[in-house]
């Protein structure tokens, strides 16, 4: 049995290492496959332009594709052209995977009123890159109705430490503290493996987010305390941390209830455990 990972960047590589540690053969697709660890058989390919070679025994497919830049053209090339070439290659090879999962984004919810969001909440992406991500989800489900979409919130973890850097640089609390949602990179990877390997057929859609939607000021204050820095001051003109982290964050309370109902257990259930592990240098590359 082969696990095919299209988009073997940071998250895709972590997923591949976890599958390899369980004894599975893993093939990773990325532009420069030479940088992949030895546990993953690499295939150097630009999916936006080419169809990959599909191993005949491919049972699971993970699409963790990402755009090279935040432009509409880059998103269209990665999410639409790349996904189409992958699906066409599966058809050409006559391979029908047992399970297929697309990593998407909770940015498809353009919600800014602090309301609760779950899998039943209709997506309402802004025109532009967020709409392209949603179009990719729809393309996948049109061609493979049994596929699963995992919409991830803001990923943090090893190499994704911008908020820590901001606090060290003297970030201020904002008078407009929006709710932020996040998931540790290791938990995102573990959730993908969990959903693909569990006996029950996964649902069409899950939200990948930890247990603690939280106002951005609370996270900033927590990090300052953990770093033994002076208590952060309130700056009425400071932009909300969620805006500084991502223009796509919005203000919403994302629910992970459906994911937890699959008996998935978080290693880092809230930002506290995750950031403490980061500050202690405890990030992992595999179990």
Task: Explain this structure.
- Pfam families: Epimerase.
- A 7-stranded parallel beta sheet has the order 3-2-1-4-5-7-12, with helices on both faces. Strands 6-15 form a two-stranded parallel sheet.
- α1 packs across α5, α2 runs parallel beside α3 and α6 runs parallel beside α9.
- With 287 residues, the protein is of the alpha/beta class.
- The chain has a single domain, classed as Rossmann fold.
- The longest helix has 22 residues.
- The two termini are 21 Å apart.
Outline of the structure:
With 287 residues, this protein is of the alpha/beta class. Helices cover 34% and strands 20% of the residues.
Show the helix and strand layout.
Blueprint: E1 2-6, H1 10-21, E2 25-30, E3 41-44, E4 58-63, H2 72-93, E5 99-105, E6 115-117, H3 129-143, E7 148-152, E8 154-156, H4 162-168, E9 173-174, E10 179-180, E11 182-184, H5 185-197, E12 205-208, E13 214-215, H6 216-226, E14 234-235, H7 241-245, E15 252-254, H8 257-260, H9 271-279
Parallel strand pairs: 1-2, 1-4, 2-3, 4-5, 5-7, 6-15, 7-12, 8-11, 9-14
Antiparallel strand pairs: 10-13
Domain NAD-dependent epimerase/dehydratase: 3-201
Protein name: SDR family NAD(P)-dependent oxidoreductase
GO cellular component, one term: cytoplasm
Mean pLDDT rating: 92
- Name the overall outline: globular
Structural class: alpha/beta
- The CATH architecture can be named as 3-Layer(aba) Sandwich
CATH superfamily: NAD(P)-binding Rossmann-like Domain
CATH fold-level assignment = Rossmann fold
Please tally the β strands and state the result: 15
Query: Radius of gyration over alpha carbons?
Result: 19 Å
Helix content: 25-40%
Q: Quote the distance from N terminus to C terminus.
A: 21 Å
- Continuous helix count: 9
Query: What ranges have pLDDT less than 50 throughout 5 or more consecutive residues?
Result: 242-247, 283-287
**CATH level 1 class label:** Alpha Beta
The description of the largest β-sheet is: 7 strands, parallel
Strand order of the largest sheet: 3-2-1-4-5-7-12
Q: How many structural domains are formed by the residues? A: 1
The fraction of residues in strands falls at 15-25%
Question: Which H/E pattern describes the elements?
Answer: EHEEEHEEHEEHEEEHEEHEHEHH
């Amino acid at each position: 049995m082969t696990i095919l990972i299209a988009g073997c960047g940071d998250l895709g590589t972590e997923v591949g290492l976890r599958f390899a540690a369980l004894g599975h053969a893993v093939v990773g697709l990325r532009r420069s496959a030479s940088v992949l660890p030895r546990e993953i058989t690499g295939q150097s390919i630009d999916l936006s332009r080419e169809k990959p070679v599909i191993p005949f025994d491919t049972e699971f497919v993970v699409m963790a594709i990402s755009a090279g830049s935040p432009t509409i053209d880059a998103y269209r090339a990665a999410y639409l052209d790349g996904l189409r070439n992958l699906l066409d290659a599966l058809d050409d090879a006559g391979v029908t995977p047992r399970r297929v999962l697309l990593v998407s984004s909770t940015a498809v919810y353009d919600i800014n009123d602090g309301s609760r969001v779950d899998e039943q909440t209709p997506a309402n992406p802004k025109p532009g890159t967020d709409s392209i991500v949603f179009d990719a989800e729809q393309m996948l489900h049109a061609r493979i109705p049994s596929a699963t979409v995992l919409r991830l919130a803001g990923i943090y973890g090893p190499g994704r430490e911008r908020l820590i850097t901001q606090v060290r640089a003297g970030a201020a609390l904002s008078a407009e503290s929006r709710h932020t949602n996040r998931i540790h990179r290791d938990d995102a990877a573990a959730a993908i493996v969990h959903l693909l390997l569990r006996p029950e057929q996964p649902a069409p859609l899950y939200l990948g987010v930890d247990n603690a939607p939280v106002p951005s000021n609370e996270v900033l204050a927590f990090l300052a305390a953990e770093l033994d820095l002076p208590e952060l001051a309130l700056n009425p003109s400071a932009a909300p941390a969620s805006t500084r982290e991502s223009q796509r964050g919005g203000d919403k309370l994302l629910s992970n209830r459906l994911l937890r109902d699959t008996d998935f257990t978080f290693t880092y259930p809230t930002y506290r455990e995750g950031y403490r592990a980061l500050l202690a240098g405890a990030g992992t590359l595999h179990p």
